[in-house]
Amino acid sequence: MARTYLRGTWRAGTQDGRPIPDAQASVWDAAEGGQQVTDLRTLDGALIPGGLLECDAWGYISLPGWIDPADVPHLFLIGSPDGTIPGVGRVHLAPADTPARVTSLETQHAGLAGRVVGLENSRGTPGGIATLD
Question: In Å, how far from its chain's centre is CA 74?
């Protein structure tokens, strides 16, 4: 399942808080080190070249949103193509589709709970499960 991220208010900035105009922001699978995530796509499914997100003249991400097809559990963003800006850490990203994922998990859990109840109710019935001592 691909994970979706929205632009939000993230901005590429220096250690003293100044924006980095037209920065190329890269996405990583760890707060430090790790691997760069390069298979990112736009919301309409087009590949983002090199996985580099383009910032606007004020340092903000100019894409309306993007998708991580690999569904990496934790992603980190920094306004630098090589993943480093001296004195600036990577920002942990929160996916925009979390409520839909929680609903999906709750639905799966409810379905599983229903099957468990059905299995328990079949104990001792003809053709059901016999409890062995």
Answer: 6
Element (H, E) at 110: helix 98-121
- Residue 122, in any domain of the structure: no
CATH for 33 = 2.60.40
pTM above 0.85, yes or no: no
DSSP string, 13-46: B-TTS-B-TT-EEEEESSSSS--B----EETTS-
Q: Is residue 105 part of a domain?
A: no
The strand pairing partners of 75, in sequence order, are: 93
**Residue 71 structural domain:** 1-95
The count of other CB atoms within 10 Å of the CB of residue 75 is 22
Q: Give the total number of structural domains in the chain.
A: 1
List pLDDT tens digits, range 31-82: 999 999 999 998 888 999 999 988 888 888 877 788 888 888 888 988 889 9
